[in-house]
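tool_log.txt
---
The assistant was asked to compare two proteins side by side. It first ran the structure predictor on the initial sequence, then on the second. Raw inputs and outputs are pasted verbatim so the downstream comparison step can read them without reformatting.
(1)
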Amino acid sequence: MAHTYKQVQRTTTVRERDPDEVVDITPSEGTNLAARIVSLAGGVVMSLLAIRFLLSLLGANRENAFASFIYNITYPFTAPFFGLFNYTPQYGAVRFEFETLVAIAFWGFLTWLIVRLITIGETD
């Protein structure tokens, strides 16, 4: 059985744009990349805060290197919320940290808001 191949020829027409014509501008790849970077950073922060919450809930020993690392790295993200519920640091004791849950909600909302502002005008 013999195969026949057809050659396809394409032509492109170039025309000048009318100055009154509305041009659809699509978001650049940089916008998408920026949104992904912000989402990644927000996800990392919220994950670390969730680990902090679990460590506090389980009464993790502050002398442990991992627990100490998590508490130290998440402190700047939770510190603004310490005054909400009469916070007194108690490391090594079982404690339900409401402040950390509020911090997770706040940083999650802020991440979502920044991503929405970056991608404003894009279609979902």
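(2)
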Amino acid sequence: MRATRRFSLFLLPVFLSSLLFSQTLAEIAQKERERRASLKGKKVVVVTNADLAKIKKKPALEIPLAEVPPETTGQEAPATTPPEAPQSEVPAPAAEPLPESAVQATSRDLQTRWEKAKEYVELLTLKMSALWQEFYALNNMTTRDAIQQSISETFIKLEKAQEEEVKARQELETFLGRQKRESTPSIWIR
């Protein structure tokens, strides 16, 4: 008994409000005719799934590669495409040690190259995370296919960037180690 009383107390305001705000079928039909009349002269664009599949999406994150002229560092510029020949190594030690300014310049160049490679790896890792997040957030399979393609392309770029970062770090370490060995006095036992 108590439940039916509560139910009726709940239903009474809902019923009364529906009577106050109700529209007749004639009013609804009249509004629809007016709406259609206002849209009569306008051009309609229909977008289908096939149209959406043809659209080439831009990447969420674009990372410009810094082009360094080869003559400024004495090495090849960072490759934007896969390198076909191995990059030049650190110059072989000469018979006499390099001047201090040349050592600092070469060390600085190798350090900046390594830092740029590290930054590129971090940006690609961030892009991969964003793509995976976007992939798992979508329900439409056609857009997931496009995102999977972007993920695979970014993964390939990330692997190459990680290899370049390791190369740059090793070149810097070998150069610094070579300079350290050359700068030690000859009286020291090696």
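---
observation on (2): Residues 99-183 form a domain with the Helix Hairpins fold (CATH 1.10.287). The radius of gyration is 34 Å.
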